[in-house]
Amino acid sequence: xxxxxxxxxxxxxxxxxxxxxxxxxxxxxxxxxxxxxxxxxxxxxxxxxxxxxxxxxxxxxxxxxxxxxxxxxxxxxxxxxxxxxxxxxxxxxxxxxxxxxxxxxxxxxxxxxxxxxxxxxxxxxxxxxxxxxxxxxxxxxxxxxxxxxxxxxxxxxxxxxxxxxxxxxxxxxxxxxxxxxxxxxxxxxxxxxxxxxxxxxxxxxxxxxxxxxxxxxxxxxxxxxxxxxxxxxxxxxxxxxxxxxxxxxxxxxxxxxxxxxxxxxxxxxxxxxxxxxxxxxxxxxxxxxxxxxxxxxxxxxxxxxxxxxxxxxxxxxxxxxxxxx
Amino acid sequence: xxxxxxxxxxxxxxxxxxxxxxxxxxxxxxxxxxxxxxxxxxxxxxxxxxxxxxxxxxxxxxxxxxxxxxxxxxxxxxxxxxxxxxxxxxxxxxxxxxxxxxxxxxxxxxxxxxxxxxxxxxxxxxxxxxxxxxxxxxxxxxxxxxxxxxxxxxxxxxxxxxxxxxxxxxxxxxxxxxxxxxxxxxxxxxxxxxxxxxxxxxxxxxxxxxxxxxxxxxxxxxxxxxxxxxxxxxxxxxxxxxxxxxxxxxxxxxxxxxxxxxxxxxxxxxxxxxxxxxxxxxxxxxxxxxxxxxxxxxxxxxxxxxxxxxxxxxxxxxxxxxxxxxxxxxxxxxxxxxxxxxxxxxxxxxxxxxxxxxxxxxxxxxxxxxxxxxxxxxxxxxxxxxxxxxxxxxxxxxxxxxxxxxxxxxxxxxxxxxxxxxxxxxxxxxxxxxxxxxxxxxxxxxxxxxxxxxxxxxxxxxxxxxxxxxxxxxxxxxxxxxxxxxxxxxxxxxxxxxxxxxxxxxxxxxxxxxxxxxxxxxxxxxxxxx
Lengths: 325, 530
Fold this sequence. Notes:
The complex is a heterodimer. By secondary structure, chain A is mostly helical. Helices cover about 75% and strands about 0% of the residues of chain A. Chain B contains 16 helices and 20 strands. In chain B, the strands form four sheets. In chain B, strands 1, 8, 9, 10, 11, 12, 13, 14, 15, 16, 17 and 18 form a twelve-stranded mixed β-sheet that branches. A four-stranded antiparallel β-sheet of chain B has the order 4-5-7-6, with helices on one face. A two-stranded antiparallel sheet of chain B has the order 2-3. In chain B, helix 9 runs antiparallel to helix 11 and helix 15 runs antiparallel to helix 16. Classes of the chains: A mainly alpha, B alpha+beta. Chain A: Pfam families: BPD_transp_1, BPD_transp_1_N.
């Protein structure tokens, strides 16, 4: 029963979120400008062309009516047709999803493993050179803007050495209805630099979290008790400290992963990576409202789902959460 | 682990031989493939969906036109070998023999009829733009498989030019092909030198050679266009040899690209960027006296417009802002192209004279204005506003430059919120721009589509109409040049510059023929001699 209440609560929250998001997105895009100027060739179109295109797109209607039409279409499962590409908007988002997923999953796996590893490495050797290098390097990696980091990666990894291509997505193979590039050698080569560009700041973030968390945990009574009991340092670290610091790390991983799905705009643009983030920013620039709305909805759902997943993992990891729920 | 010497040696030799073999085959295959990084988005595979270069440039590999425009903007036979005027309102086009579509079916006059009907009767907005080219057509008929007769509403001396925009599709027995079906990549057959292979909107377009092409054998066996919107990413892709051609490079990167061994070509674009004035309103938005009080619209005085144009330092614009990849402008197309006037050349700024003119017009102390423009749409657009602001400050006009995203700019310009702004015009011939920017706006005829400032000059309208009624040829060009001379004396706009299209190509490309309309195609590239 409690579970049911939780789920209904969650769902109604998610629904409210989607509603608010769609309103904000709708009004926001509307107030930026008229998309019709990106649909017709503004340097040759006559006022008559513009008027007809406006009517056909339904942009001559008042905003509230446009929104009602949008919601009605949504009820039938349609986000409408992209003004620019003339393809169903949600299909367009889904077609960009494999590119984004392989980038984000790669980056988050690297970030979690390398970040936790570096953090623990530093904390077990407090005050040594390694500790200081990790602390300084993570501050540096967190403070450089991602466009600069991407540029430097292109400069070092592509322009100067020629090891990796400077941008674009490699050849793809079709598996489970999506085009995946990580299954081909060419695709993997193309993946390296953008994945690193996305992973590095997150490696730093997670390393700092892991280090700080462990420092805190080390001061607690139960760790002191473990030491007194004569447990080995390694066993204390992995069996007792790690589960305790994993909660904030999982929260961050969940949040950052959601962010990568949607807002890896800078990295995707610089590496000409055809992902969801790039689609969103391009569509905003072109005022392609159906695609913007479809992308925003997809992102909101992804965030809600990820948060739910993180909460679930809390319960798995933390007995206190299980008992209180 | 140690191998016996002889075995190890053989192993290395075999490996080396295999590597050599592999490299050789890889090179042979790669030598025929052309990889292009383009800024053109290619939004749809429907050739009649939108007139934007964004679509037509890449689709011209697959589809062809009856007539095409060469790099001097002259008309050349395409799918039509010849055309002539039968009467004032009737044209005859003779079609090329032995042309086949990619599915093997022959190209006939019926396909031309189908194409024009599809544009006129089938496509609905927002797939607009092409209707403008078929507007003057009353009827199309096909008396025999290689002849098309087009009857026009009234005299249409530039019908062949209009047809140079229209891609010919193959008649679909089951009715008109829908945009959705074309986007799905089905029934995508044209007569062009390259055949469609695959496409992902906003990502890539892959083409293969059409071995049955009617003209010279296409140079490349495979062509892969990668859509790379960020200029920096295009520069990086070209500098690392990841692509063979990159289009629309930023002028400031040209030196670095050359240093890395790539070649760079440029051509002045058949277009103009200019400043346009609000002329209809009693008070121009954003224009006040120095203390912020509303003043009568100063731009309605010819002397004010002349003074402002005179006080623009176009040398700074093209040398500094465009790094030399621009031509200072005094008319719509770069001097030398058909229909331009040799009397009009850009002059260095004359501040004293401009100040005197302003005083004569009743503004000895100048005035204040907001100068609006798009940011990042055209090369140098945002910086130009700043530079003009500095120039105008020297004649006492204080300027607040405001650059906004292009879509916002268009919305506000369309709503009449601007007093003076930065605009652009391009077209297949100079009269297109003369009509769009300067002719009195008329919703019915579509004239003055870009005349947001409501410039009205009946004498000019009449002259332009007469010039446009002439047949394509020297007499028409002369008349258009005279019209330009006449109207620019009144300074309805302040021309700024013709920016250059800058393309770069790597060692596998021998030469690239630039087109002033800014097209990016594999047909313009020839492979390097081995």
